[in-house]
Amino acid sequence: MTQTKTNTNSRGGQTGYLLFLLVSILFAIFFIMPIVWSLANSFKPAAEALANPAALFSKTFSLENYRRLENVGAGWYVYAANSVMIAIGTVLLTVIVSVPAGYGFSKFKFPGQSILFVLIMATMMIPFQSILTPLFLILKLLGLQNSLVGLVLIYVTFQLPFSVFMMRNAFDAVPKALIEAARIDGASQATILRRIMLPIALPGVATVAMFAFLNSWNEFLAALIFLSDQNKFTLPIMLVNVSSGLYGIIDWGALQAGIAVTMIPCIILFLLLQRYYVRGLTAGAVK
Amino acid sequence: MARLELRNVVKSYGIYEAVRGINLDIEDNEFVVFVGPSGCGKSTTLRMIAGLEHITGGDIVIGDQVVNRLGPGKRDIAMVFQNYALYPHMSVRENISFCLEQQKLPKAEIDERISRAAETLHITELLSRRPGQLSGGQRQRVAMGRAIVRNPKVFLFDEPLSNLDAKLRVQMRTEIKRLHQLLPTTTVYVTHDQVEAMTMADRVVVMNGGIIEQAGPPQELYHHPVSQFVAGFIGSPSMNFLTAMLEAEGDGLVVILEDGSRLAVPATRFQEYRAHAGKPVIFGIRPESISSLTQKPGFETIEANVDLVEPLGPETMIYFDIGSVSMCANVDPESDPRPRTKMPLSFNMNRMHLFDPVGGRSLSV
Amino acid sequence: MARLELRNVVKSYGIYEAVRGINLDIEDNEFVVFVGPSGCGKSTTLRMIAGLEHITGGDIVIGDQVVNRLGPGKRDIAMVFQNYALYPHMSVRENISFCLEQQKLPKAEIDERISRAAETLHITELLSRRPGQLSGGQRQRVAMGRAIVRNPKVFLFDEPLSNLDAKLRVQMRTEIKRLHQLLPTTTVYVTHDQVEAMTMADRVVVMNGGIIEQAGPPQELYHHPVSQFVAGFIGSPSMNFLTAMLEAEGDGLVVILEDGSRLAVPATRFQEYRAHAGKPVIFGIRPESISSLTQKPGFETIEANVDLVEPLGPETMIYFDIGSVSMCANVDPESDPRPRTKMPLSFNMNRMHLFDPVGGRSLSV
Amino acid sequence: EEITLWVRTSSGAVLQGLAEKYNASHSDKVNVTQITAEQMVPKLGAAVAGGAAPDGAVLDLIYLPTFAANDSLEDISDFVKGLPYSAALSPSHIRLATYDGKVYGVPALPDASIIAYNTDLFKKAGLDPEKAPASLEEIAADAKKIHALDKETYGFYFVANSGSWLIYDFLPHLWAANADVLSDDGRTATVDTPAMRDTIAAYRDMWKEGAIHPTSRSGNGNNAVEAFASGKVGILMTGSYIVNLLTSKYPDVKFAVAPIPGPKGGASSFAGGDTVALIKGISEEKKKVALDFVKFYMEPEQQVYITQESGMPSRTDLAKEAYAKFDPRNLIAYDILAKARTPYTFSSDELFVSRTGPFLNLIQGTIFGDDVDGSIKKAQDDFTKILDRTNP
Amino acid sequence: MVDTPTTHIKQPISGEPEPKGWLGLAFILPGFLFILVLFLVPLAMTIWMSFYNWPLLGRKKFIGLANYSELLGDMQLWHSLGFTMLYTVLVTAAIFVVAFPLALLVDRPLRSAGFFRTIFFMPVVIGFGAASTLWMWLLNPDSGVFAQVLRGIGLISSAPRPLESFWPAMAVIILMVVWKTAGFTMVILLTGLQGISNDVIEAAKIDGASVFSRFRRITLPLMRNSLVLALVLNVTSSMLAFDQFFIITQGGPENSTISAVFSIYLASFSSYRLGYGSALSFALLIVLVAISAIQFVLLRERPEEG
Ligand SMILES: Nc1ncnc2c1ncn2[C@@H]1O[C@H](COP(=O)(O)OP(=O)(O)OP(=O)(O)O)[C@@H](O)[C@H]1O
Ligand SMILES: Nc1ncnc2c1ncn2[C@@H]1O[C@H](COP(=O)(O)OP(=O)(O)OP(=O)(O)O)[C@@H](O)[C@H]1O
Ligand SMILES: [Mg+2]
Ligand SMILES: [Mg+2]
C-alpha cells in the first residue's frame, strides 16, 4: 500500500528525490558528526587533538588515550567489566521477571489485575531520583549497598514497567487461537509459554532486553550514589570522574577514549538489532 | 473414529446463556455441519466439544467416555481454526509434528506419520517452509495436516474457509469433502455460510439463539424447513416471504396476498394446510420456484413490475415488488426480462411454504 | 456526466509495464466494469483516470478535455475506495462536506446538498456519527454519499464491496445499481469478482496482464468469449477445458477427447470451425451445458464416474474426471446423482467452445 | 590484624601507596578503599548509622566537627598529644579535629591555598615578577594591566561556581584582614564585615573591567589550570599542589606563587586536605594498628613520599628534608600553613559546599550581580537560619 | 452402538484444562515483589521522611509540616521549578520542530530513507551521561570542535562561551537534547504517519484538498495518538531532566539551570537534608502526577479508528 506513495517516474520525482537526499544529508551530518568527532579525537595524540579537534583524520594514529584510560582509577577495563556484568544481570533478570508478568497480564484474568497493572505502570511516572534516599536505606537494610547486585535490583525495578508493558503487548499480539491449538495438541502451560508464546513474542523480548541493556549500561546517577568502592564503578561514573578533572585539569583525550568505550557497544548493539528496537519501540508505544 | 453425543449441553457466560441446551447424536464418521447466524452459539458449542470451554451443564460423550472434565489435549480430537492458528515460528513439519511430540511418540513414527499426511495433502515439498511463506490454500492444507496426523476420534472445524477468497473457498471445500471420503472420521464443521453447509454436510444443524432449530440432511432442510428461520437461512438467494391470509374457497384453499392477488393452493397440498384455513399466515416461496410464464398445473401467475434485472449468465435474477415487499425471482435468461417493464411470473405452488406468523413454525403437518 | 476516453494509455513502474496500452471509449452515463485477475492493472487504470498516478503514455479525456496534467481535485471525478477511506476523525456530515468545503461553496448550499444526498442514501440519521460507529454497509453508503454530493462527471469505484460479507455484498450491489439508475452518471467500477461484473455492468472490460482482453455487454462475454482466458474467467463455476483434436468425419466435424471419447459438432456450427479441422484444440464447455442424460439434437452423451456430489438445493454440482482433468457439471437434483457411481452425462454441443491451444484465441469466426 | 580505611579518590593513590609500604614491612594489614570524593560523607554517614562502618577514614578536614559532634569518631586525644612532634602538626587541622576539648583526628595530607602568577605576563605588563602582589587591591590593579595587553588575556582567574573552591580561595582574603564569616565557635554568622565589603569591591572592580577570565563565573575548577597553563591568565587563585603540577605537566610555564593577601594587605590561607579519623567503636587491637599506621606515615621517609605525591608533608617540622628535592616555591605554601585557617562549622555542606548554599549565592550575587547590599543581607539571614537549625 | 453404556470418569481435571486466573497472579508476583520492595515501600518512606528533620548524621526529629512550609518560601526551589517548566516547554517544542520534519522526511519506502532513519536515531542509544560529556567537550571553548569550526568559517572571532550566561547555556543544552532525542520522537511520529491509510490521503486529494489543507485537516488529526504519546514522553522526561544540567552546565550560571530533580539531588545528597529532600520529591511527584493526569485525559479521548 505504501508502494504507491512515491512516483519515482513523475515529473517532480527526480528533483524531489534530490531535495530529499540533500536535506537528509544535512540532518545526518548534524546527527552523526558529534559521534564521529569524538571517535576521531580518541585516536589523536593530545597535541594534535588540541590543535585541530575538528579534523577527522589525524596525522598519527595513536592509542595513547586508551592507554592513559588504564590509569584512571582501577583502569577502564575494570569499569567496563563491571558495566558488562551489571548490564547482563539487568537484562537477564528483567527478562526473567517481565516475561511471565507480561504473560500473566495478557492471557489471564483475575480480580485486582488492573490495579496491579496500574501500580506497576505508575513506576514509570515517578522519577526514581525522588526515592533515592529510601532506596539507599533499603539497600543498606538488605546488605546490598555498594554492591553490583543491589544496583542490578534497582535497575530491574525501574526497567520493569516498560518491560511488562511491552511484554503484555507482545503477548496480546499472539492470537488466542494459537494457545488453544497448542492445548488441543496436548501441550502443558509451561510448554505453551516456552515453545509457542516466547518464540513469537521474541521481538518484544529483544526490545525489552535491549532497553534493559542500554539503560543499565548508561545510567549514572544511581550508580554514583549506590556504589562507593571505586573497583565497582561503571563506565559512566568513570566518565564523569574523568570529566570532572583532578586539580583543575581535564584529560580530554582520556575522556574521548572513555566516551568511545562507553558509546560503541551501544551503537553496535543498536545496529545489529535495530529492526527489533524500532519495531518493538513503536509496537509497544502506539498501542 | 467415534460417536459424539451432546446431552442437554448448556453454556452460560455469567447470566447470559450462549448455548441453551443442545441434544445431538453424531454417528461414527458422520460429517455434521453447524450453521447459523453470527452469535448463535456455534463456536461455543464446538469449543465445548474441544474442551476449550468448560460446560455449564449437560454431558459431552466422545466414544464411550464422558469427557466433561478432560482437558483438550486428552480428548483425542483435532481442530482446524478459522485463521488456521499455525505456529508462525515453526516450519510446516514442526507444526505438524508438535502434537506428536507432545505425545512423546518415537521419532521414526513421527516422521512416518508426517510423510504420510503430507502426501495425502500434497504438501510434501512445503514441509520446510514457514507458514508465512505459504498461500492461503496451502496454509489451509497444513492446518488439515496438523489435524489428520494424529488420527483423532473427532475432527472439529471452525469456519476454516471464511478467510479465503471465493474461488479458493470452493476449491478447498471440495478438498475437505474429498479428504473426509478418503479418511472417514466423525466431523463437526462450523460455518455461517449456508452454501458450505449444504454442499458438505451429511447432516446440517441449524442453530439460532443458542438452540438447535432443525437438524437433518441438506435436502430435507431445503425442502422441508420446520420454521421460517430455517427456510430463510437455507437457500440463496433467500426465500421470499409475504404476509397473507389462507382462505377456504369452495373445496380448495387459496392464499390471498397483501395486494389482493389470489394464489390457489394445489389440491395435493390441501391435506397439509386445511387446519389453518381462515388464519393469517406467512407465505414463502423460493426465487427458483418463480419462473417466467408457465402453464402447468400448480403454477399460479401474477403480473409483476420488474424493478431490476441481474443477468448471471446461465440464469437471470429479477427483482419486483408485491405490496411493500421486494421479491426476487430466478428466471430463464431466454425470457429476456427488462427493467421497468411488466412481465407475467408464475409461482410454483407445489413448492410453496406456509408459516405461522407467530413464532414462525411451519404449518405443514 | 460526460464521456470518458482512454487513448492508448500506458503506465510503467520503472521497467515494469503495469498497463500496456489501453483504448476505451466510455459513453455518457455508461456503467463500465473492469474485471480481471489480481495484478492485471485494473486499479492502476482507475487510479490514472482519477489522477492519483501519472500516466506514462497516452491520453485520458474526460468530457472534451485532456486531463493528463490535471490534479485529482480538478478532474471533477469522485472515487469510492475498497476500504472506503472515510476520514476516521470526522463525523459522517464532515466526511461528506469536506470536498464541498474545499470548493468553498456557501454554507447553505453545502447543507442542502448534504441533506439531499443523505436522503437519497437513507443515512440522514447517521450524519453525526463517526465512521467507527457504523456497520460495513453503512460505511459503504457514506462513501457513496461523499461521492455523489459533488455531482461529479465520472464515478470511480475500486472494489467497493470486497470487504463486505457475502449477504451484504449482494445487497449493496443492487443498491449501487439502483443508485446508478436514479442518478445516471458515467461510472467505472473495478472488481475482481466476475459475478459483480456480470450483474452490474452495461459493459464489462476484461483485463489481463495490463491489456484489455475483451470489452462488451455481459451476455456477449458469456456467450462469445474471444479467448480461453475470458471464457474461464467469466461464469461460475468455471468453464471446463479439455485438450482435444478437431477431426473431419465424413461431412461433419468431431471433437476427440484425450480419453478417446468422440463428440460430434452440431451441423449448425460446422461453418464456424471447419477451417481448423485436423488440428489440436482446447475444447471448452460450461458446467451448466452438461446435464443428465438428454436426448436432444446437438447433445452428446458420455459415461462419467461421479467423484463427488454437491447438492445446492435448486441444483446439484457433480465432479467427474475425463482423462486427468476434473470436470464439473451442474445437473438437475431430480436426477439424484450419487458419488462413486457411473452416470450418463450429456454435453450440449450447441454451447461448446473451441480455442487455439497456442495463445488461447477463440476459433469461432 | 587487618584494618580498613576509606579514602576519597583524590587522595586514593597516595594512601594506597603508603598502605602498600606499610603492609610490606608489617604483619598487620591496612586495606584502603577508595570512595568518590562527593560520596565520602553520605557513604560514611550512612555506614556509621547502619553499623557497617570501616575502621577509619581519611576525610576532608572540614567534616571533622560534624562527625565529631555526632559522636561517630574515636577520641584519640592522648595519642595525638603524646606524639613527639605534636606541636608540628598543622594547627588548623588540629582545631577542626577538636570538639569539646577532645581530639578526634590526625592530619594526613594537608594543603594550603595560594596564588600563582605568570611571571612572563607580569613582565610584559611592566610589573615586577619578583614582587608578588601584597594586597587584593594590588592584585586588581595588576590584573587590569595584564588584561590591557590583549583582549584574550585575562588578569585574574578564580573558581566562582563551586563552594568548595570558594572557601578555599576566597575566605583567606577575609582571614588576612582578621575577619571571618563565622564566629570562632562556628555557631554565629558574621558575614557583613568591612573586610568582606572591601574584598567584594576589589573583585567587582576587576569583573567590571573584564580582567577576570570569563570562565571563572561559571567554572567549577575543571579548566582553571589549563587556562593558566595556556599563558592567558595573569593571576590564578589555587592551592599548594600547583607547583608540582605545573612543573611536571607544563614545564614551559613561568610562574611564581604567593600567599593569598587581604584587601589591604596581610596574608592567609585555607588549610585544606585530609585528616585521619577512627570510627567510634573500633576494637583496641585495630586501633593500635591504625595508630601504628599513623606513626608509620609520619616517619620522615614516608613524609618525603607524601610530599612528592601530594605536595605537602603532614609534619611541618620536616619541611626542609621533605622539600629538599623539590621546587623551592613549595615552601611558600608550607610557610603559610601555620597561619592558615579553616572554617569550623557543623554544616559546611549547607553553608559552603552546596551549589545553592548561601555562600555561593553571596559570591555570585555580590561580584557578578547588581545588588551587593541585598546579597550580603540575604547571606547573613540564610547563614543564621541554617546555623540555628544545625548547631548541635 | 447407541446404547453402549458410557463411563463417567471421576478424576480431577487433567490434561491442561482452561487455565485459572490465579496462575496469572503467580506469573506476575515476582515482578510485583520488585515494585513493592524497591518502589512502593521507598515511595511511602519518602512521604514519611518528609515529616522529619532528617540529617544524614545525627538524630532525626519529627517536625510535622515544617519542611513543607519551608518549601513554600524556598525561592531557589520555585526558581528551579519555573526553570524546569520553561525548559520543558522549549525543549519539547524544539524536539517537535526537528522531529516532525524528520519523520516526514524519512516516511518513504526508500532504502536510503531507512538508512537515514538509522542515522537520525543513533544518538538515542548513547547514554545521557556519555552524550553530556561528549557535548561538554564539543562546547569547550579551548579545545572543542564548535569553537574551532565556528572560528574556522569566520563566524566568530573569539571562542564562544555559551555556558557563561543563561540563554546561550539553555540554547546549547536544548541543541544537545534535540540531537540526543529527536530520533526517538521521530520514530514515534513516523509510526503515526505510517498508520494513516494512503487511501484516506488519496481520498482527500480527490476531494480537492491542497497539500496544506491535507496536512492540517487529515494528517495531523489522524496522528493524534502519536502526537500525544510523543508529547507525554517528552514532557515527562524533560520534567525529570538532570544529567545534562549536572554534567554540562553544573547548574550555572548563577544556579539558573538547576532543574527540579537537580534541586532534590542537592538537598538530599549535597546538603544532606534527607527530610527536606523527601518533601521536595513529594512535591515534584504531585506536580508530575498532575501533568500526567492532564495528558492521560488527552490520551483517552481517542478518535474512532476507521
Ligand atoms: N467469553 C465470552 N464471554 C461472554 N460472552 C461470550 C463469550 N464468548 C462468546 N460469548 C457470546 O456467546 C454467544 C455465542 O458466541 P459464539 O462465538 O458461539 O457465536 P458463533 O455462532 O460462533 O458466531 P460467529 O458466526 O460470529 O462466529 C455470542 O452472543 C457471544 O457474544
Ligand atoms: N507503485 C508501484 N510500483 C511498482 N509496481 C506497482 C505499483 N503499483 C502497482 N504495481 C504493479 O502493477 C501491477 C498492476 O497493479 P494493480 O494494482 O493495478 O492490479 P489490480 O488489477 O488492481 O489487482 P488487484 O485485483 O489485486 O487489486 C501489479 O503487478 C502491481 O504489482
Ligand atoms: Mg464463531
Ligand atoms: Mg486493485
Question: What would your notes on this structure say?
Answer:
The complex is a heteropentamer, with one copy of chain A (287 residues), two copies of chain B (365 residues), one copy of chain D (392 residues) and one copy of chain E (306 residues). With 287 residues, chain A is mostly helical. In chain A, 54% of the residues are buried. Chain A is 73% helix and 0% strand. Chain B is built from nine helices and 20 strands. Chain B has helices spanning 42-50, 92-102, 107-121, 136-148, 166-182, 194-200, 218-223, 228-233, 270-273; strands spanning 4-13, 16-26, 31-35, 57-62, 65-66, 77-80, 154-158, 186-191, 203-208, 211-216, 240-249, 252-257, 262-264, 279-285, 290-292, 299-311, 316-322, 325-331, 342-348, 353-355. Chain B has a six-stranded mixed sheet, sandwiched between helices. In chain B, strands 13-12-11-14-20 form a five-stranded antiparallel sheet. Chain B has a five-stranded antiparallel sheet with strand order 15-19-16-17-18, with no helix packed on it. In chain B, strand 11 (240-249) and strand 12 form a beta hairpin. Chain B is elongated, with a radius of gyration of 25 Å. The mean pLDDT of chain B is 89. With 306 residues, chain E is mainly α. Chain E is built from 13 helices and three strands, in the order E-H-E-E-H-H-H-H-H-H-H-H-H-H-H-H. At the A-E interface, helix 1, helix 4, helix 5, helix 6 and helix 7 of A face helix 1, helix 3, helix 4, helix 5 and helix 6 of E. Strand 5 (65-66) of chain B pairs parallel with strand 1 of chain E. The structure holds adenosine-5'-triphosphate (2 copies) and magnesium ion (2 copies). The site of one magnesium ion has 2 residues of chain B, from helix 1. Chains B, C: Residues 4-234 form the ABC transporter domain.
Give a brief outline of the structure.
The complex is a heteropentamer, with one copy of chain A (287 residues), two copies of chain B (365 residues), one copy of chain D (392 residues) and one copy of chain E (306 residues). Chain B is of the alpha+beta class and 365 residues long.
